[in-house]
Structures are given as structure tokens and as C-alpha cells.
């Protein structure tokens, strides 16, 4: 069967937050003929297996912590209410499905044509979209945005497939009794914290002595120490060599850490060791679009690739910010430039804040202390720090009080906060 041929001003490949924001602005605000392609569920990582279900789960974990803390304020719980993971999971899934529907209605409202299928370049201006029924649509576009996002990585060790990734975390129907989380980035730290707060015995395997290593050393040290104080088992200087299937849902993890070699029987193993761009099926090579050594599409501050009419943003590009609000802002700015007559419209990638929903929560903006010293020189840097016990903990025993810390990094005679 011959493919259906379509033409448009703007083809957006990827139905995540950034791609949809750009498509909707191009069509809804500027009248461009836009087509959006997605092969999974609308909303991308954030809505389906990222920020949204993560934050809902973090809310549940925070409630569990609050109930435990409430005893210090005089509340007499005869017993802590058990957490019904299965019921919670199904309610969370229903909420995400509602968001999927809202995203599709928003596309319709802004007159963006939506194709549910898998995109693959056939030449630099043409993309074949294989629809769910197996038929093909050939789309020729004046401008093409690649916003396909990324996927979690799995290590190359025997039995690695017995573990799950952050995607699988949201598919768990029952609460694990004992979990091993491998990774030291924000995804690993958030999920380990949620597991622990909800009552799962949690083991966290990290390669060094602290985690969140892209953050300031103060953050690394304080949060690592707090996780240990709370009772999360942190295996430092660790590596994993093999995973065995023991049957009945149990696995045996073979590892090495600062205490030597060991094994551990667990019912859930979660890999959170990084993410890679979702480019395998896109046939991007036919376009000659350049990628960096990690497989991300090279872009400038205007989201341009080296091919004049092809653009990229979000997790698939090399700007270094895998954050939903960043992708949304970049997508809207791109459409302002391409279709709104704003020739200089682009996202300013400097001083973008980030938050980690760990326990306690971390917020950061600007340079870390080592980055500031390298950029400005030691003699130009002045550091202000403050550590104290928040009033929330005033009713609690000393051993139950969590840390609160702030750090300001200033540069130059004016002591500009950097």
C-alpha cells in the first residue's frame, strides 16, 4: 500500500513537553501548519514516567514521614496506617491517563495534527511515520524539530535485565520489601528516598563516597549523611558484577563495595545509572545531523543543528538541562523565532534552577563552589554558609532532627551571587 503524503510548515517528532509546547505555539499562535508525531503516550517522560508520577509518589512518602513526625507534636497514633501501594499506584495511573487526554485535547484546540506512530527520516526534509495499523504516512516539512527525549540506561553485566529502570518503578504493582537502587544521580536518590520513607528496606549503591556529585560539595555531604542517619544502607565505592534469578521474584545481586565483595538477596533491583537519547529508530544519519560523543544532537543556543531546517531540544540535545520547564521554554522560543518574526528569540540557559526531591529536598541555582573558583579564581570568591535546625524539628529528639543548610557563592568586589 502506497504511503499517504502530507506536507507541513513544522513537523515535531516527539510528543513530550518541549515538542508539544513548540507545536502548539507554532500552530495556535502563529497559524503554521504543524504535525506532531509520538509513538508512546503524549506528555513524554515527565507526564508518564518522570516528574508527574514521581512527585505524586514523593507526596505519599512525605505524608508517611509527617505521620511519623507528628508523634513529637503530641499526636497519639495507636499504629501507623499501612500504605496500600497497589491502590495508590492505580490512582496515580488514572491521574496520568487524564493528563494524556488533556494533552491530546490541547493539540486539537490549537489545530495541531497528531499522528500516533514511529518516525524515521527518509531524507533531510522527509519523514516516514509508521502508524499503529502498520500503514505509512510520508511527511515533507519545511522545518523539523527533533524532541524525542531519552530512555534509561542498563549496565552491561550478566543478568542486568532482571532489574528495572525508573520506567519500571512506576509499573510496580506491589511494594518491594527489599530493594537495591544502583546510581548516584537525582533519579536514584529520589527513588531510594521514596522507597525508604514508605517502608521498604533500601540499599543504595554508589560508585564514590557521596552522591549527587554534579551538585555543590555541601549538598553531597549533607544529603549523603542524612540518608545514612535515616537508615538507608549506602554501599560506597561499589560496582556490580552479576545478577541471578532465584525464582519467586527474588534476585541475588553480586557486588563489591568499600567493605569488599558481597551478595544480597532482594525482590527488586532498580538501575538508575543515567539516560541516553531516544534516537535508535529515527534514521538520523540520513540527515547528516551531528551528534556529540554521548549521542546527543549538537545544537547552538537557538536550538539549531548543523542542518539549517532541523532543530533539536529537550533531553535529546546537548544543552545539558534535562528539565521539563527548560524544554517547554526552549520550544516556545523556537516557534517565536521560526514563525513569530522574533529573529533573536532563544532560551537563556544561564542560571537555571534545579530541585531534587530527596529527603530533605535540595534546591540549587548557579555555579558550585569548585566551578566558581575555577571560573573566577580563589581570590575573587567569598562563601557564606549557614546551618541550623529548622523550627519544624523543635519538638523532636536530637537524633531525629534533620539538617538545614544554605550556601551563597559570591564573586568579585561587588560580591555578585554566582
UniProtKB/TrEMBL annotation:
Keywords from the named record: Cytoplasm, Disulfide bond, FAD, Flavoprotein, NADP, Oxidoreductase, Redox-active center
Pfam family, one: Pyr_redox_2
Keyword NADP: yes
Primary residence: cytoplasm
Residues in FAD/NAD(P)-binding domain copies: 9-331
Keyword NADP: yes
Swiss-Prot/TrEMBL catalytic activity: 2 glutathione + NADP(+) = glutathione disulfide + NADPH + H(+)
SUPFAM superfamilies listed in its UniProt record: FAD/NAD(P)-binding domain (SSF51905)
GO CC term, one of those recorded: cytosol
Matches recorded under PROSITE patterns: PYRIDINE_REDOX_1
Gene Ontology biological-process entries: cell redox homeostasis; cellular response to oxidative stress; glutathione metabolic process
InterPro entries cross-referenced by the UniProt entry: FAD/NAD-bd_sf, FAD/NAD-binding_dom, Glutathione_Rdtase_euk/bac, GSHR/TRXR-like, Pyr_nucl-diS_OxRdtase_dimer, Pyr_OxRdtase_I_AS
Record localization: Cytoplasm
Described function: Catalyzes the reduction of glutathione disulfide (GSSG) to reduced glutathione (GSH). Constitutes the major mechanism to maintain a high GSH:GSSG ratio in the cytosol.
Name this polypeptide is given: Glutathione reductase
Source organism (scientific name): Hortaea werneckii
